[in-house]
Design a protein that fits this description.
The protein is α+β, with helices and mostly antiparallel strands. It contains eight helices and ten strands. The longest helix has 27 residues, at 99-125.
């Protein structure tokens, strides 16, 4: 009933978590009857420009700093590898920020958003709607910070981009405090919300409610799933930063194994139990696993025709300007 977003023609800037919480608090105070609230924070999204001075950033992760240094990327300036056309430097304290400084900036943005999520939940629980409500906290994607030579997201299929946090608080407190290792998908969130609201889940929705996992303590997760990276055109980048790869890309995950087919001459196979960082390609060493996952991808592609994958929808100029202001369109 109420949807609030900045007018890109007036203020083409993303709102901070603090501003968003203020707007959400007003909605919560004035709401009557059954209530659904969706809040989207941008503070952990590139260019990670949250309202804190650079000097107060968390220290950059030492492992990532060493990795960037080993690839000769430690002093590369961040604006040189941004995943959109942007020539002007990202500046702090009068100088262009490097990749290492942006790693610290990303961590600080995550911390800033996390603190505000916690505050929002406190505000929510102080309203009549909070007690006995379903609360979901998640993210639409992870972030590449140089682990595989990629920066940001959308262009690769490694776990730093695919894995996201998911916290669920059930209305009756079921499964409180437990960690569930089962594999699930963001496709499962809509059926979960509908079930909690005692609504019928339409047959055309591809996900499944997460409620049974809480009751069965993780039994019944997804055995196999497919992830897709859409087509992108590869612009020029520093030689050691492979940010964009043309063509479609797919990954099949089943148990401990992930099979990646993304336009390279040879596919990739990871054993994530032995190699959680996905550093070693074992394609050719486990041909039976590779064959099974390749066949699973072929089957998935037959159920999802080319015309259904990424067919662009028309976008009006106002919506285009909004997407441009958020960094999604060059």
């Amino acid at each position: 009933q109420t949807y609030s977003q900045p007018d890109p023609t007036v203020n083409p800037v993303r709102r901070t978590a603090d501003e968003i919480n203020s707007l959400a608090a007003t909605l919560m105070e004035n709401a009557e009857g059954p209530f659904f609230l969706f809040v989207h924070y941008y503070d952990a999204h590139d260019p990670y420009d949250y309202p804190e001075p650079l000097g107060r950033h968390l220290p950059a992760d030492e492992g990532l700093v060493d990795l960037l240094d080993s690839r000769g990327l430690k002093e590369v300036r961040y604006h040189e590898v941004l995943n959109r056309k942007r020539d002007e430097p990202v500046v702090a304290d009068g100088k262009a920020i490097t990749l290492v400084e942006m790693v610290a900036s990303y961590d600080a943005g995550v911390r800033y958003a996390t603190d505000h999520v916690a505050e929002l939940i406190r505000l929510w629980d102080a309203t009549p709607h909070g007690p006995g409500s379903l609360v979901l906290v998640t993210s639409d994607h992870g972030e590449g910070l140089g682990q595989h030579g990629f920066w940001s997201h959308g262009m690769n299929l490694q776990d730093e981009a695919l894995r996201v946090p998911l916290l669920v608080r059930w209305p009756d407190g079921a499964g409180a405090g437990q960690t569930i290792e089962a594999t699930v998908s963001l496709l499962d969130l809509a059926p979960t919300v509908l079930e909690a609201a005692r609504q019928k889940v339409p047959d055309e929705i591809p996900g499944r409610s997460l409620r049974p996992l809480a009751v069965s303590r993780g039994a019944g997760g997804r055995e196999t799933f497919v992830a897709q990276r859409m087509r992108y055109v590869s612009p020029s980048r520093p030689a050691k930063v492979r940010n964009w790869r043309p063509g479609d890309g797919f990954a099949v995950v089943s148990g401990d194994f992930k099979y990646v087919q993304d336009g390279r001459e040879m596919p990739i196979l990871y054993d994530r139990s032995a190699d959680p960082g996905e550093r070693t390609n074992i394609a050719g060493r486990r041909p039976e696993v590779e064959k099974t996952l390749r066949e699973a991808l072929t089957l998935w592609l037959t159920t999802c025709p080319e015309g259904d994958r990424g067919k662009p929808a028309p976008v009006d100029e106002e919506r285009l300007e909004l997407l441009r202001s958020l960094g999604y369109v060059d």
